[in-house]
C-alpha cells in the first residue's frame, strides 16, 4: 500500500502520485525528500552543485512517468543529500502540456514530490524575454504567472488561493544571494509552436515579462498539493518580434550551456538557504 502521510484524499492524480513516491522510497532508500527541484532547459548543471547524489533512478521506471521527449532534458531523477543532511529530489526533466495535452501528466511531477514528503518545490525553465532588457543568459525570479493554456490540473470545487503563489519568502532569499536578480511575470502558452509576434505583444499588454511552455500548470498543481513554490527562469532568447532573429530550440540549448555554470551555482546557493 502506498504511503499517505503527505498527500491525502483522492483528487485525480493523488493515488498515482503516492504510488510513484513509494516506488521512489523503495528505489532510493530515502524515506522523505524535503525539497524537490524540477530542472528545465538550461538548468541541468545545477544537480551537480546541490550535494551528494545518493541514488539515481531512470524516470521511466517510476509509475506514471515516461522518458523525456524534449532534447536537453535528462531522463533521470536524483536523490541528493543537502549540506544540512536533508534530501532533495531532483527531476532532470518535466512533462510538458504540449506532449499529450494531458494536464494530469504535467502535474504528476509535483504531486509525486509532495507525496515524497517535499515541503518546497523549485520550478526552473528556459523562456523567451518580452522585455528587451532581459537578454539571453539572464536569470529572472518569477513573481506571478498568466496561464494561457486554457486548462488546469484541478477538478471540481478546488478553490485554491493563488495570491502569493510564488513564495515571497524564497524570493527574498534569492535576492539576498544575488541583489541584482530581477523579477517578472511568466506567461505560459500551450505550445509546442513558438509564440507569434502578435501573441507576444498580447502577453506584454496583459503584464507579461517572460513567455514559455511550462511552469504555470506545475505551479498550480504544486500549490494545490500543499507545496511552497519558487520559480526561476533563464532567458534563453528574445521572444518573437522583440528581435528580428528566428527562434529555434538549438538557440535555447546554446544559451543554457553558456549560462549553465553561473546559474547552477546561483540555484544551489538559493536552495542551500531554503
UniProtKB/TrEMBL annotation:
The lineage of its organism: Bacteria, Bacillati, Actinomycetota, Actinomycetes, Micrococcales. PROSITE patterns: PNP_MTAP_2 (PS01240). One of its GO terms (molecular function) is purine-nucleoside phosphorylase activity. Homotrimer. It is an enzyme of class 2 (transferase). The purine nucleoside phosphorylases catalyze the phosphorolytic breakdown of the N-glycosidic bond in the beta-(deoxy)ribonucleoside molecules, with the formation of the corresponding free purine bases and pentose-1-phosphate. Cleaves guanosine, inosine, 2'-deoxyguanosine and 2'-deoxyinosine. Its EC number is 2.4.2.1. This is Purine nucleoside phosphorylase. The keyword Translocase does not apply. Residues 34-271 form the Nucleoside phosphorylase domain.
Amino acid at each position: 500500500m502506498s504511503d499517505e502521510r503527505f498527500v491525502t484524499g483522492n483528487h485525480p492524480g493523488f493515488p498515482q502520485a503516492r504510488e510513484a513516491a513509494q516506488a521512489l522510497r523503495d528505489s532510493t532508500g530515502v524515506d522523505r525528500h524535503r525539497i524537490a527541484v524540477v530542472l528545465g532547459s538550461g538548468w541541468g548543471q545545477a544537480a551537480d552543485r546541490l550535494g551528494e547524489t545518493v541514488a539515481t533512478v531512470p524516470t521511466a521506471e517510476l509509475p506514471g512517468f515516461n522518458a523525456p521527449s524534449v532534447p536537453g532534458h535528462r531522463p533521470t531523477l536524483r536523490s541528493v543529500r543537502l549540506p544540512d543532511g536533508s534530501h532533495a529530489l531532483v527531476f532532470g526533466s518535466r512533462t510538458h502540456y504540449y506532449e499529450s495535452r494531458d494536464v494530469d501528466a504535467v502535474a504528476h511531477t509535483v504531486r509525486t514530490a509532495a507525496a515524497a514528503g517535499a515541503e518546497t518545490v523549485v520550478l526552473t525553465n528556459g523562456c523567451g524575454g518580452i522585455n528587451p532588457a532581459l537578454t539571453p543568459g539572464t536569470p529572472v525570479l518569477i513573481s506571478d504567472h498568466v496561464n494561457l493554456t486554457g486548462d488546469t490540473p484541478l477538478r471540481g470545487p478546488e478553490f485554491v488561493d493563488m495570491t502569493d503563489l510564488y513564495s515571497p519568502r524564497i524570493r527574498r532569499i534569492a535576492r539576498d544571494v544575488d541583489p541584482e536578480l530581477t523579477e517578472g511575470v511568466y506567461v505560459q502558452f500551450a505550445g509546442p509552436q513558438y509564440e507569434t509576434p502578435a501573441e507576444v505583444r498580447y502577453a506584454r499588454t496583459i503584464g507579461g515579462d517572460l513567455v514559455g511552455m511550462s511552469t504555470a500548470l506545475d505551479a498550480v498543481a504544486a500549490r494545490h498539493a500543499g507545496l511552497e513554490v519558487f520559480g526561476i527562469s533563464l532567458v534563453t532568447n528574445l521572444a518573437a518580434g522583440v528581435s528580428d532573429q528566428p527562434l529555434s530550440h538549438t538557440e535555447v540549448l546554446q544559451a543554457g550551456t553558456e549560462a549553465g555554470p553561473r546559474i547552477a551555482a546561483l540555484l544551489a546557493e538559493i536552495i542551500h538557504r531554503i
